[in-house]
Design goal:
Layout: E1 6-7, E2 13-14, H1 64-84, E3 89-96, E4 102-108, E5 114-120, H2 124-140, H3 142-148, E6 158-164, H4 169-175, E7 183-193, E8 196-203, H5 212-217, H6 222-238, E9 245-247, E10 250-255, E11 258-266, E12 269-274, E13 281-282, H7 286-306, H8 334-341
Parallel strand pairs: 5-6, 6-7
Antiparallel strand pairs: 1-2, 3-4, 4-5, 7-8, 9-10, 10-11, 11-12, 12-13
Helix pairs in contact: 2-4, 6-7
Length: about 350
Amino acid sequence: MAARTKKDADGTPEPRRGRPEGAGSGPDSNGEGKVGKGASKTRGGALRGRAPKKAVAGTPPRSDGERAERIGALTALASGLEEVVPGIEILDRDLVFDDGGRADLAAADPNGNLYLVLLADGDADAVVLDALDALAFAEKNGVLLGRHLRRKRAIRSTQILVICLEQDERLFVRFLPLLSRGVGLYRIRTLKSASGEHSYLVPWGKPEGRSSVEGFVQALSSDHAGLVHSLVDRISRLDSELEPQAVNGSLVWRADGVDLLRLEARDDAIEAALMQEGRPRRLASQEDVEDLTERALQRLVSLWDARGESGERDVEVDEPPADPMPREGPVLTTEEINAFRE
């Protein structure tokens, strides 16, 4: 996929349009990339930027290790977000809301969903409050947020992505109740080899004792939950390797590294977005489930054909069982049958 954003010298993603005057745009005097640290409230606007604030007296400067870790985090964001949300486009950064909330990045996917990204590199309690503030602001001020980000399409939903720079178990425990409310928790994992070094964003666990499907349907009506379970059963028959995963409040089936199918709960409806299709469709009846399954199979076949494996997959269909002992001709000859009748 072609790159959608430019990058600064330190690897941070550059928004697709002009940024507020005074917001930090690159390495500071210490060589550190600034994301989310150079924005603050100003009178007369909810989302304004200013020059990076001066260091507080008595605050020790970041060590080389901390600086390298943060730069690595920003580099992972530039490419990692595309892997987490295919087709994502960075819109702006250093957002500060007039109620005190903040977000380091704002991005959107092709379906019109908005993502507010927060970097978590310290105080677990402060990060949770920041995520709650961002979620509350987006839920109440979606139209205003869309206008500020110059979105031509209406925002369908807003999800919060928290990127953890440290593996703090306290942070994970505090975020557990929020994982079903549109908040996603990710860690940065770095792999090194002879060919180089690359950082990846990976989901940070899920609540124990609850499957992805159960977590998704818990807030649905009994009718909608039944449709989801029926769809899960039918998709599993297409390919035993297809298992749904809970991703940022959605139920996602992935095949060959791409989102094959995504389910999202919208108020009193369920919407299904299938790969290579335009706008999502509502899932309201068993007929919709059957139709969606058939279309999902067509997409799977196209993926298998692309890698030359269409003939190697077994798709379950309702056919009578084959004769376990196929025969080329009758068991008894005509003479033997006549002799038996006599």
